[in-house]
Amino acid sequence: MTDPTDTHTHTDTHTDSHTNSHTHTDTGKVLAIASHVVSGFVGNTTTTFVLNLLGLETGSLNTVQFSNHSGYRQLRGFRTSAAQILEIFEGLEQSGLLEGFDMLLTGYVPGEEELRAVGKIAREVKKRGGGFWLLDPVMGDQGKLYVSEGVVPVYKSLIHHADLIVPNQFETELISGVKVTSLATLSTALDTLHRMYLIPHIVITSVTFDGASKMACAGSSITSSGASRKFVVDVPIIDGFFSGTGDLFAALTLARLREHSAAAGLLSTAGWIPPDETATLDLPLAKAVEVVLGSMHLVLKKTKSTRDRILLSQAAEQGEKERHVQVTRASELRLVQSQEELLRPGLRYEATVLP
Amino acid sequence: MTDPTDTHTHTDTHTDSHTNSHTHTDTGKVLAIASHVVSGFVGNTTTTFVLNLLGLETGSLNTVQFSNHSGYRQLRGFRTSAAQILEIFEGLEQSGLLEGFDMLLTGYVPGEEELRAVGKIAREVKKRGGGFWLLDPVMGDQGKLYVSEGVVPVYKSLIHHADLIVPNQFETELISGVKVTSLATLSTALDTLHRMYLIPHIVITSVTFDGASKMACAGSSITSSGASRKFVVDVPIIDGFFSGTGDLFAALTLARLREHSAAAGLLSTAGWIPPDETATLDLPLAKAVEVVLGSMHLVLKKTKSTRDRILLSQAAEQGEKERHVQVTRASELRLVQSQEELLRPGLRYEATVLP
What we know:
2 copies of one chain form a homodimer.
Chain A: H1 4-7, E1 29-37, H2 43-53, E2 57-66, E3 77-79, H3 82-94, E4 103-106, H4 112-129, E5 132-135, E6 140-141, E7 144-145, H5 151-158, E8 164-165, H6 169-176, H7 183-197, E9 201-207, E10 214-221, E11 230-236, H8 245-263, H9 284-313, H10 320-330, H11 339-343, E12 352-353
Parallel strand pairs in A: 1-2, 1-4, 4-5, 5-8, 8-9
Antiparallel strand pairs in A: 2-3, 6-7, 9-10, 10-11, 11-12
Helix pairs in contact in A: 2-8, 3-4, 4-5, 6-7, 8-9
């Protein structure tokens, strides 16, 4: 046998400029609490891959294990009970692993008791590490709840512990009480959420107004006196129904916000709140969202063109139910095939000040 | 609001040479059935990240959800029952998602009934797509079983359905009945496994002989007449105990074997068995293992130096148990920080023919 260390020690060739383009050296660690599906990309399946890829080591506590996401209208699997969630938490605690997390991302939690358990864990993690909590108040979309009704008041009781929330239009209305039908009411909703929950950062994702050909994404970071700094970004609508876009948005936003907050020297501060003199369009949150929306657009464009190619190559299933499943399968996010788009989107959407 | 599509359509800048270095365009899809831990990298936590990163879209069916791996000697969480595993399988089946998988990677399954359920799924997936099954017969290490005893005969009944097995030294002895104490007996073990189970490919990972300063990794791909084509690679031993190295090895081997089998035009053949005229050192399996061991070495080197740095910066815990947990925490594989080493190790270890 030859000694391979003599003949092949090319250890230097593996470092190239690529390594410097994201933050692999000062790794942040995220505890992600959300759903798990065996096939496809939603919830933690998306979150862990995207955050790990972007250099944030991510541990996932799965609130369910389902065969596939609910967009198929049929699935099998099981939920993790509140008792099981708390048991895993105790396991992390007894080995000193909770202290390792400096960020939290919470998403889909189907039941009220389970959400209380998740809230307990999040507060404990924050207590130890002063962690940053991105809370995605996953409750429903387009007027429909997809969690049990008891979940809504529990979210309302938890939001003031979080640092960033990323509700969609429907969830914004549920937690703010403001009906969002125009830029003016969108702006009011942001003010109301800051005031009601003292939440440092908000992004309202994917808002559509009647008759508009684009979607709006709006955000705000609070000042020391509790005032809003509001911005909005317009993005083109991509035709089709794609599950898990909210989870992708949340994961990317956490990674990019951390990057821009690090650049602004904010990571050791509570809530990563920029100084009052930071102008709205210079907010780390605004810069983060601009990049995130670039990645989102490119991933969705690739997903849509892949879907169209797949459906063209297949005979259309008969029966409405079979056809729906066929289209849903073809519409799974193309994340693995979009690593460049996630890492270096190139494309940026520009924020403007929202009065 | 400005229209960002007018001002910032840099969509072309996101494709660079990096994209061509692995196989993102012709994505293979893997069903990975193994353990899940919330903190750290073993089982599916490793497998899904590594395979997705290397361009193979991976769905994970988790056989357990534990707070951490068993190397800590304490953990909390729960197992997925055989009934739950089969229920998820039915969910995949009813939405036509099983057909989507063209590879299988099975690892840690703690109980006999659960392993039977996994075997059923693997055979079904193979039946539909002619998929390639990498079976890691996870049973124990260094003379100790860490699954229930009933698992051993179930593995023995399943191996002949698989395409590649990656037992360690102890597991090799369990399934072949050959005690591995020298290169000669290592070679006999490979012959015996091919003959007993008609298994196309074998890699015996991390073999150590008394008094040797290096580890051996040996493999073989069968010929059409059932003969072995055996090779061995020597690798330096890295001091320390690192959990999940077997899982990392399995995931990398699947990805690299597929790459080299694709280059040899074998992906549409059953078992990816190279023609009889392929010389041992030209086997896709031999080439794959050379690259895999390069990545393994670089990841372990980085993990070890990170561990040493962490332990130096911390006061040593008193109590044996606390100290063990502290060292184990510091020894978690540094996968997220080793993306370049996983993608482009540069370092290669050279195989030689094993007589």
